[in-house]
């Protein structure tokens, strides 16, 4: 989902306070959207890694339990 943003020119050196504040608000909103999109992308990529880590922990616990049980029986 490409983000289609128009190139917005920076305020001129002689810009009024209201124009600068308006530009700052626009920049904040744009930055917020970018952070939200990046967070979504990272979360969707990290999810499979989380499942894999959980599976590896389960396997490690199962192997450890098997070793402990076998040593107690011996």
Automatic annotation (TrEMBL):
Pfam families: DUF3618 (PF12277). Keywords: Membrane, Transmembrane, Transmembrane helix. The chain crosses the membrane at residues 49-69. InterPro entries: DUF3618 (IPR022062). This is DUF3618 domain-containing protein. It comes from Phytoactinopolyspora alkaliphila.
